[in-house]
Design goal:
The chain is built from eleven helices and twelve strands. It is of the alpha+beta class. α6 (about 155-165) runs antiparallel to α7. The longest helix has 19 residues, at about 210-230. The chain is globular and about 55 Å long.
Length: about 300
């Protein structure tokens, strides 16, 4: 617990230094609120028959908080949190039902510059907890769907393959594409695109793979990388064209955090510009979350902890 308290203090210290003020939301939400962005919640009825749910993350409750309580304040809003979240798990995948999260939400800052600020804070946070070898994967949520659309894929195929891509199931994706009969050349291009990762050169490599919609998504990704580079944060960023987050509210740049000492993702985030509209407010938004237990485990594996 002493190590966890120190870890939490380090995280909140960086958030505060960058002007992100800590907020707290209820553990229990109305199920309809949670379901606006997540499907794997623990649900139950209260004594009046209201369907409630344990929060699955902090982004959705904070989006609701801003939409309902912050109308008299001028954006952007820089908010941070340290809280537990709860998710129904897949049996035998060693997933936690309850886990600690720490992160930030930048609400009201648009486009590449907003994402670059989030990545800058993320990089400084990783340094503060000693994970200087950790890397940030940078993707674009629209790449897969735009390329499928350019190649004639329908909504059914998109829905099926998006979930597979979020789980990194390349074999499953290939099987779905073959069944859809898009043709060997298009299938090869799609499978090749999602396995491109590295520096900004992978964006150039991908230019000839898709059509016009895919090209526009690459333009957004390139602009984001340039903005991150201008802030000096590109050294630890890896462009990953196959990066897809499982939470369905991401709408632009996507982020995942890896550390060489662990085989698990230790954090993630991205843009969720459309989520705020579900709560009646129209704000661009981006953020990230780090998983406390995994960060602590990475510290232990890296010899940074007394455990």
């Amino acid at each position: 617990m002493a190590e966890l308290r120190q870890l939490q203090s380090s995280l909140l210290g960086v958030f505060e230094r960058f002007g992100f003020r800590e907020v707290r939301t209820p553990t229990i939400e109305y199920a309809e609120v949670v379901e606006r962005g997540a499907e794997n919640a623990y649900r139950f009825f209260d004594d009046r028959g209201e369907l409630l749910a344990l929060r699955t993350d902090m982004t959705i409750p904070i989006a609701r908080l801003v939409a309902t309580r912050f109308s008299d304040l001028e954006p952007p809003y820089r908010l941070s949190y340290l809280a537990n979240a709860y998710r129904a798990v897949t049996p035998q995948r060693a997933e936690l039902r309850e886990f600690g999260q720490a992160g930030i939400e930048l609400i009201g800052a648009e486009g590449a510059e907003g994402t670059a600020e989030v990545v800058e804070v993320l990089g400084q946070t990783l340094d503060a907890v000693g994970l200087k070898q950790a890397r940030i994967g940078l993707g674009e949520a629209g790449l897969w769907g735009s390329m499928l659309a350019d190649f004639g894929g329908d909504e059914t195929l998109l829905e099926e393959t998006t979930g597979l891509l979020a789980r990194h199931d390349i074999v499953g994706i290939e099987s779905a594409l073959v069944t859809a009969d898009l043709g060997p050349d298009k299938t090869e291009s799609l499978l090749g695109m999602i396995q491109l990762r590295g520096g900004p050169e992978v964006i150039t490599t991908a230019r000839g793979l898709g059509g016009e919609r895919f090209g526009r998504c690459l333009d957004r990704l390139e602009s984001t990388y340039s903005a991150i580079s201008a802030r000096g944060g590109a050294d630890r960023v890896q462009v990953d064209l196959g990066l897809m987050r499982e939470l369905g509210y991401y709408s632009g740049s996507t982020l995942e955090v890896y550390d060489p000492s662990l085989g698990e993702i230790i954090g993630g985030g991205g843009r969720y510009d459309g989520l705020m509209r579900r709560f009646g407010a129209d704000h661009a938004a981006a953020g990230f979350t780090l998983y406390i237990e995994r960060i602590h485990k990475a510290q232990i594996e890296g010899g940074l902890s007394g455990a």
